[in-house]
Amino acid sequence: MNFSKKNISMPSLNIKHYKNDRLFMNKKIYCLILFSTFIFSCEDVITVHVPVAEPRLVIDASINWFKGTSGNKQQIKLTLTAPYFDNEIPPVNNAVVTITDANNITFAFIEEGNSGIYKNSTFRPVINGHYDLTIITNGQTYTAAETLMSVSSIDFVEQKNDGGFSGDQIEIKAFYTDPADEKNFYFFEFINDIPTIPTLEVYDDEFTDGNQIFAFYNEEDLSQGTSLTIRNYGISERFYEFMLILLQQSGNDSGGPFETKPATVRGNCINQTNPENFPFGYFRLSEVDEVEYTIN
Amino acid sequence: MKYNKAFLFFIFLFNLSTLTSQEKFTLSGTVSEKNSNETLIGATILVPELKTGTTTNEYGFYSITLPKGIYKIVITYIGFDDIIETIHLERNISKNFGLLETSESLDEVIIKENVEKLNIRKPQMSLNALSAASIKQIPVVLGEADVIKAITLLPGVTNAGEGSSGFNVRGGAADQNLILLDEATIYNSSHLFGLFSVFNPDAIKDLKLYKGGIPARYGGRVSSVLDIYQKEGNKKEFHTNGGIGIVASRLLVEGPLKKDKASFLFGGRSSYAHLFLPLFDLDNIAYFYDLNTKISYKLNAKNNVYISGYFGRDVFSIPDSFENTYGNTVVNFRWNHLFSDKLFSNVSLIYSDYYYGLKLDFVGFDWNSGIQNFNVKYDFKHYLNNTFKLQYGLNSIYYRFNPGKIEPSSPTSGINPIKLIDKYAFENAVYIDTEHKITEKIALSYGLRFSTFSRLGQDELNIYENNQAVVFNEDFQIYESAEAISAETFKRSDIIKSFSNLEPRFSLAYQLNDQASVKASYNRLSQYLHLLSNTSSPTPLDVWTPSGKYIKPQLLDQFALGYFKNFNAYSLEVESFYKTIENRIDYIDGADLIANDAIERVILNGKARAYGLEVLVRKNKGRFKGWLAYTLSKSQQQTEGRTVTELGINNGNWYNTPYDKTHDISFTGSYEFNRKWKFNANFLFQTGQPTSYPTGQYEFNGITIPRFSDRNENRLPSYNRLDFSIHYTPKPTKKRGLQGQWVFGIYNVYNRRNATSITFGENRITGVNEATRLAIFGIVPSVSYNFKF
To answer: By the 8 A CB rule, do B70 and B36 touch?
Structure first.
């Protein structure tokens, strides 16, 4: 019958499902119970013919100022959308990329070869500083504006070895302290050195204002000696909303009767020449705290 | 004032028909099962001499008024021996009939006619009736007989796929069904995400599903009415019946409290699959249970009282991390009173609630939400004469909504306690409904319901600039939540916002000949409550919210036209319908509906439409019984921009609802080899559900993002499935002592992996994009044992 055994033993039903929302009021929780209740259910990878839309510009303008560094070296990546099952993502070459700060200082980003990666090494990050991004490519001008957001440091990392649904998975909690009486938003990145894709999470402080709270990470292949890079980025409310939808739509764990309807996700970049031909991606500026952690 | 005029018009009609009196007398009473005194719903009282008759109502009561004379009266009910009695109607007569179950000789096959036989004379159309017996025959997954699974085999009824809660009628949403259990509203009809419904099949006497032409006595939901009555309990002797299945077991005890006067019924059902989880080395718990109770007391010939209750819960728990409990509670007191032999009344006092609780230990919080209501109904059935029947009444419901409450579950928790603001509302309705036989060939049913809804005072209702809680960001072309400019606190007795709606209902039947008729209907319904859910199928944690300052009530208009024919053992029903719904709520992208204290900030008012054609061929008697249903339909919704500069949802275009299935074919049948062996089968074919496939991909922040365009543009592969079951009754003639029956079933015989969903994502290890199909049920064998004594 080839029903996947994993739903019977359930190790793959990890708490990763509980992502996105500190409250974990996520409907995915139900997917998880649903699958664990229906031991007859099975998942398999199939071939599907999907439609292909015209390519569009994708702006990955993520300016990251790691705490304790100058933040001078920054890069912006420009690509095009590709058919869903393609293995190659085409870069966008020869674009003119600049960021202008509140003092009207312009930082030019120069492409490295034909990589679609544009670099600058004189960038001057300022907390709460206002920045404007301009990209000119293919005769069209794209702009975006955003503020550089500060972030709380990661206080400590806690490891639990008997977590998950099967009770034998490694769970990581990265604690931080939320500043009281203001709205804060967090973007966490968990990168490991085993070959799995990174885990991204976004959190708000609606129910945790002013408290010490944690970001949660669980990856079934974690083992002793795995080294983890945990990054906490300060983000704006708009980026939080944007990333929340993006993560809901990109998750391999989504789906089932409780999935939300996917839709086009628009970021903060505008095509000034032809607004209809809007780009994907986002112009974000964050202060970042990074912690290296080895699983013990 | 115009409402009063409409009411006067009805009073006028009412008088008109009473004035035309000659010397007439009324025969009235109840029809019940002789052995148990269980009243029979829909038993027929025929007067062959006058080619007329009537049927018993939900409480087994009938009343028929005839000119003075001597009549041969025939009382019939399917599966029971007819009673033929001569009545000297020279005064008003009150007479109760007790029918005996048809007794068969040893080797005779039961050739029962089906209870659900089509009534071509009545104007009521778009109605499907199912008896508990036929529900129990239908093969189901894991062998647990189920009300909702049975009705989804009917034309025009579907659901959002396996493992989804609720059901969808004629392209309507799951929250648009009025589900009544002994007249009390049930807010969540599913256990274990739709694997089972909350109705214990042993406790059910009768169910009716109104898909259109909905009578004026019902209101509050726009799509359908599922009206379920529980048994009263045996007034003569004690009986027990039950069943043992692989997932759940049930037991029902009934008997007299006072012989022929009072009876009780107590039923319980529970799943126990979780007991086996430790075998897989799991401490997780997932189970459900429900309890049904009822006490019936016949005070005298004119008064009956009923007290009934339902309590059900689903429980999921993972030790030290997670505990989830939810379910319905219903308590119901009803009093039937006969004002005269022509005027039947029923008062219902109903309390019902839905509770949802979630405790997450590893995050450190407790969450609960729910809805409570108090409901008073006063209904009259007025049997004026042979050709004119009147129903009228009133209904008041008081609601309290708890959108959510969060508490830290331990002192070290990083969660702050929060109570979302409770909401209150008061819904009232008066209605009048007629059944009017104009000529031998034409029968009409017309009625009017006048409903009002008042959103009562609450704390801190947000106020927004220009009264817009959702704003459109023209730069980014997206909808965003507005910031409140202030908040207003009201007294509980204040009315923040009120609505009123006139809901006309009209049906007509024209009899072509003895066997065939055409029917047409129109109805308008309003719905003041909305279930907040932006997933394909509702989840248990979805909360109900009332209409108010920012959310408008849903308004439905439905037209239906049908052709109905009985021929030999068969019946044919062909119906087409068209309906539109105004103010169907839709959600902005990324809307977070849970623990949202200002839900209006993520909601836009849209609309919905559905149309279709339904064909039902049914065989009602013989060794083989069953039906074949085909539905061709379309169900869509649209949310346009409020101004020309706004984009709307899905660019303001119509898009398919998640339960839109173009073609839906269901066959269900049972064949009785002999009295020991019975063979049942289902076959289903449905167009795949709408879904969205990505039109591309892009890279952002190190991960691959699928690019989506229009909503529900694509479809899952078509759904099809074949199920079998065999009923084996070792001693079919045994009528005393323990009587048992085995049910062996196979669900999805050819093990088709019907996709419940296809999700697109990166392979966790390789990062390569892939499409993953989820199939909930492959082939599932089952065995269960049912018994009674």
So the answer is: no
Q: Give SS3 for A9.
A: helix
| Residue B419 near residue B405, CB atoms below 8 Å | yes
CB < 8 Å to B703, chain A: 197-198, 200, 250
Which helix or strand (DSSP H or E) is residue A32 part of? helix A28-37
Q: How far apart are CA B275 and CA B142, in angstroms?
A: 16
Does the distance separating the beta carbons of A24 and B773 come in below 8 Å?
Answer: no
As for the ipTM of the complex, it is: 0.87
- Between CA B26 and CA B33 the distance in angstroms is 23
What domains sit in chain B, N to C, each tagged with a CATH number?
Answer: 2-99 (2.60.40.10), 127-668 (2.40.170.20)
Distance from the Cα of B660 to chain A's closest Cα (Å) equals 14
**8 A C-beta contact, residue B401 and residue B371:** yes
Adjacent-strand bridge partners of B719: B686
Question: Does residue A6 sit at the B interface (CB-CB below 8 Å)?
Answer: no
A vs B: CB pairs below 8 A: 279
CA atoms within 13 A on the CB side of B500: 7
Residue count of chain A:
296
Q: Please indicate, yes or no, if residue A51 is contained in any of the structural domains.
A: no
The tens digit of pLDDT for each residue in A146-177 reads: 999 999 999 999 998 877 666 677 889 999 99
Residue owning tokens 């004690």: B238
Q: What is the pTM of this model?
A: 0.87
**One-letter amino acid for residue B519 of the chain:** K
Domain match, A172 and A253 both? yes
Nearest CA-CA partner of B509 in B497, B499, B521: B521
Asked whether residue A77 falls in the same domain as residue A218, the answer is no
Residues near B655 by Cβ (< 8 Å), separated by ≥ 6? B636, B637, B638, B690, B710, B711, B712, B713
Residues A218, A199 share a domain? yes
- Amino acid at position B526, single letter: S
